[in-house]
Specification:
Elements: H1 2-24, E1 33-34, H2 36-43, H3 47-60, E2 63-66, E3 70-73, H4 78-102, H5 105-125, H6 131-149, H7 152-175, H8 177-181, H9 188-194, H10 198-219, H11 224-227
Antiparallel strand pairs: 1-3, 2-3
């Protein structure tokens, strides 16, 4: 009985991770409509684990449930992207300031080692590693800094932002050759880990986030999956 239960949990988790990875990497485009039957045929899972995955992703805000119509990958719109960067520009530098101030040496070393591993993989493959690996390392670094703050609200808030920030990064890396070609050794997140002055690190992050914000707004018109996304207006309560 235990084996059956463990198998089901494992299958559910596998379906969740695969579906989440497809959304984060934008292989499932923002605004794309989904059905359980279609996903089962495309991914090779039965409906039960996919339904569990879709419920989890709905809770994370990456999927929207459409009553009697199936599901939709949560759209990214010009306004939602602008709003997201506005919030990240306020929260990100402070998360970095507090995280660097309170992180242990072991936590900082673990974050640096993740970038070293990404560099090594890039050299082995003779080019840039996959977009998902790049995003995973950046996310893990910010998770370390968020956890180091010890602030539950800040940790939860970062986790809410992480999915959409990852999707924007994937779109940027896959559609903008300049961003994709940036050397990992020069990655701005790596630089803030090595900065001795936490206030300077936070200010560097603020400037970088604003630069990327403006860059994304300039290139957003080349992202059909974003520009064609539906904009839903909720009725007043």
């Amino acid at each position: 009985m235990t084996d059956v239960s463990d198998s089901r949990v494992s299958l559910n988790e596998t379906a969740y991770r695969q579906l989440r990875g497809d959304i984060i990497a934008c292989r499932l485009a923002p605004g794309q409509r989904l059905t359980e039957k279609q996903l089962a045929a495309d991914m090779g899972f039965s409906v039960a684990p996919l339904r569990d995955a879709l419920i989890r992703l709905d809770h994370e805000g990456l999927i929207r449930t459409l009553p009697r119509k199936g599901y939709q990958v949560t759209p990214l719109t010009p306004k939602s992207i602008d709003d997201l960067f506005g919030v990240w520009g306020l929260v990100g530098p402070e998360l970095i300031r507090l995280g660097l101030r309170q992180a242990s040496q072991a936590q900082l070393d673990a974050a640096r080692e993740a970038f070293d591993g990404l560099d090594a993989l890039s050299q082995e493959q003779g080019g840039s590693p996959s977009v998902l690996l790049d995003i995973d390392v950046v996310n893990r670094t910010f998770e370390v800094l968020a956890e180091a703050t010890g602030n539950t609200y800040l940790i939860n808030f970062f986790q809410q932002l992480m999915g959409d920030m990852s999707r924007i990064r994937a779109l940027l890396l896959t559609s903008d050759r300049t961003s994709a070609a940036t050397g990992l050794a020069d990655h701005w997140v790596r630089h803030i880990l090595d900065e001795q002055d936490v206030d300077k690190a936070a200010e560097h992050a603020r400037r970088y986030i604003e630069d990327v914000h403006q860059h994304v707004l300039r290139v957003i018109i080349r992202w059909p999956s974003v520009m064609s996304s539906e904009v839903s207006v909720l009725p007043p309560r």
